[in-house]
């Protein structure tokens, strides 16, 4: 069985942010190790006969969509704080501070379609 079939039937993409490169995949608890071990072998994604090179790093494995959402909010805050320390201008600093203040779980929940609590795997 190919990875494409595995991802289609068992691991729907619950969240994708092309800007940050974050992808949240949902799979059954029984299959998370299979997915986790297969992700390093994915070297490209294909869409409309175009290949896009990629790689996946697992950032978090959570038991529910909600715990993955909470992790994602904390992870994004940490990334913004790292950017804040490396700012070169006051304009950049204000922009990042505004992003930090607006970062909340309710905004993240808007990106998710379902409110049910199921297994998920977050990758970057």
UniProtKB/TrEMBL annotation:
GO terms for molecular function: ribonuclease P activity; ribonuclease P RNA binding. The keyword tRNA processing applies. Transmembrane segments: none annotated. One of its GO terms (cellular component) is ribonuclease MRP complex. Pfam families: RNase_P_Rpp14 (PF01900). InterPro entries: Pop5/Rpp14/Rnp2-like (IPR002759), Rnp2-like_sf (IPR038085). It comes from the Eukaryota. GO terms for biological process: tRNA 5'-leader removal. Belongs to the eukaryotic/archaeal RNase P protein component 2 family. PANTHER family: POP5 HOMOLOG, RIBONUCLEASE P_MRP SUBUNIT (PTHR48414). This is POP5 homolog, ribonuclease P/MRP subunit. The lineage of its organism: Eukaryota, Metazoa, Chordata, Craniata, Vertebrata.
